[in-house]
From TrEMBL:
<dbReference type="InterPro" id="IPR003111">
    <property type="entry name" value="Lon_prtase_N"/>
</dbReference>
<protein>
    <recommendedName>
        <fullName>Lon N-terminal domain-containing protein</fullName>
    </recommendedName>
</protein>
<dbReference type="InterPro" id="IPR015947">
    <property type="entry name" value="PUA-like_sf"/>
</dbReference>
<dbReference type="Pfam" id="PF02190">
    <property type="entry name" value="LON_substr_bdg"/>
</dbReference>
<feature type="domain" description="Lon N-terminal">
    <location>
        <begin position="6"/>
        <end position="224"/>
    </location>
</feature>
<dbReference type="InterPro" id="IPR046336">
    <property type="entry name" value="Lon_prtase_N_sf"/>
</dbReference>
Length: 246
């Protein structure tokens, strides 16, 4: 079994391969991570792993509060995640490649990364200034009938887009040509749909592309029906996630 150890960046969202991830990095543990990544030569990938938080806080508390107003804020790489990261994080995540890491004058960072491939979280190390993880790459198997399923998902996704545009009382012009490769379709649709984190996580860790596409087809039909009766939902950029505040 081939494994890799990378810096670990937990978020309250799911990163998919192909999705662009903007980050506003201001906590010291993640500043330290970016300083370390900047040591990587520019012609080599600056990689870190993103996992969705199952139980914890993306940003550690920075001041005393409820239930104990006298409690001191947590410090260190595990702050906000409890003592057992195995319970705090989902087991399947995504490697991110940081194309841009810009340090601001105040020491914070503006980062633009892209999801590349899925990984399974095997263990988490918290002895350094930031979290690192031992990771096992997860291959993307096509499964049965992935190509026709992708065609059906694209048809349903276009209807979903139209419903979203109608809910906003404007035409939807993303300027994005939709792909036809089943794996790319499955990740693009999973990232673009308005779904909660557990559902997106379920799609990320689907056993193969066909299984993900089948799940998405059901979700698209269900969500499109819901939008008909709730005509005030936000639209979505197809390739970019919201900027994460760590």
């Amino acid at each position: 079994m081939t494994t890799v150890r990378l810096p670990l960046f937990p978020l309250n969202s799911v990163l998919f391969p192909g999705l662009v991830l903007p980050l506003n990095v201001f906590e010291e543990r993640y500043r330290a991570m970016m300083r370390e990544l900047l040591k990587t030569p520019e012609d080599e990938p600056r990689r870190f792993a993103v996992v969705a938080i199952r139980d914890g806080h993306e940003v550690a508390p920075s001041a005393p509060g409820m239930p104990d107003p006298t409690a001191l804020p947590e410090r260190g790489p595990l702050a906000g995640f409890g003592t057992d990261p195995a319970k705090a994080f989902h087991k399947v995540g995504c490697i991110a490649d940081a194309a841009t890491i810009r340090e601001r004058t105040d020491g914070s960072f503006e980062v633009l990364a892209t999801g590349t491939s899925r990984v399974k979280l095997l263990s988490v190390e918290a002895s350094g200034p930031f979290l690192t993880a031992e990771l096992e790459p997860l291959p993307e198997e096509p499964g049965d009938e992935a190509a026709p399923l992708a065609e059906g998902v694209l048809r349903s996704f276009r209807q979903y887009q139209k419903r979203l545009a109608g809910a906003r009382e404007r035409s939807l012009t993303t300027g994005t040509e939709l792909p036809d490769e089943p794996g790319v379709v499955s990740y693009l649709v999973a990232a673009a749909m308005m779904l909660d984190t557990p559902t997106k996580q379920r799609l990320l860790q689907a056993p193969d592309t066909a299984s993900r596409l089948r799940d998405e087809l059901k979700l698209l039909r269900s969500e499109t029906a819901i939008i008909r009766s709730l005509p005030s939902l936000p639209a979505s950029d197809l390739t970019r996630g919201p900027t994460s505040l760590n």
